[in-house]
Known about the structure:
Elements: E1 4-8, E2 13-16, H1 17-40, H2 50-73, H3 75-80, H4 95-112, H5 117-142, H6 180-201, H7 207-223, H8 230-233, E3 235-237, H9 243-253, H10 265-273, E4 283-286, H11 287-307
Antiparallel strand pairs: 1-2, 3-4
Amino acid sequence: MWPELFTIPFVDFPLRAFGLLVATGFLIGVSVGSKLAAKHGSDLKNDPEKFADVSWWILIGVILGARLAFVFVNIDHYIENPGAILKIWEGGLVMYGGLIGAIALGLVKANMLGMPKWQTLDYGLTAGFLGQAIGRLGCLAVGDDFGAPTDVPWAISFPDPLPAGSAFPSELATVPVHPTQLYMSAKALSLFFLGKWLLNNKKFHGQVSAVLLMAYAVLRYIIEFFRFDMVARGGIYKPGHSPIDVSAHWQELGIANEAGQISDVGKYRELLMAGADNMAPQLLMSTSQMVGIAMFCLGAILFWILRSKPSLRLSK
Length: 316
């Protein structure tokens, strides 16, 4: 991992890998989106760069939506620490919120420019997933959205001590975990290629968007099973396995202090890797999985509604 690339001289400001990769993903997404607009945007044949105007609204929607969703999931923490709400460079983005925000503001701007919304969303969402595939590498660089302990051959581990700016929990350093950041990057990349194929084979405008929403929901739902940041994600916890229950269990084992924080890191890692029970909170269903179910249903409803509209059908 490499959270901070270097410190900018004179201003003593660290350039973080997360921000750089998110920005790179955005710029590449805009570039590819403009090319897709030239090919698949019937209203933009002579002005594909018009898509770039929409992209800035999409960027605002991604950041605003993703951060608001994270704050909502962790509302108790931010009520006590309101000043931390704006510290997005420390991690803490829920990409479901970013996806919803990007779609909402992107459609608003497209409508302001007189662009056909479903046609625009089809190629815009496709390009957006390419940008997300690159941006998700930033999560790996800072150790955010980390996976569960595992012994699979492709497991990764983070160093001890952790570098400055890391979002990875220190008690899990050196523990092999699922590279869920790479899973999510691969998910987004596969959705980009699926979208490209659908753009060339769709029967009606909006078909690509509806299918991508459903596919995103399914893939994200599956990846959630391999993640280990249960407290940050929130959701419905298994009986007896809530954060409070687990902290109490740690205290009984003598590996946590009165505040419920791990005090004997070595013993905790040993018990965790041995598969001891109640070493971490367990979710019946995460917030992201609940949102995923709703998004899948929304995509299916959109597919059914848009397919029935004669004005959106393509004659081939």
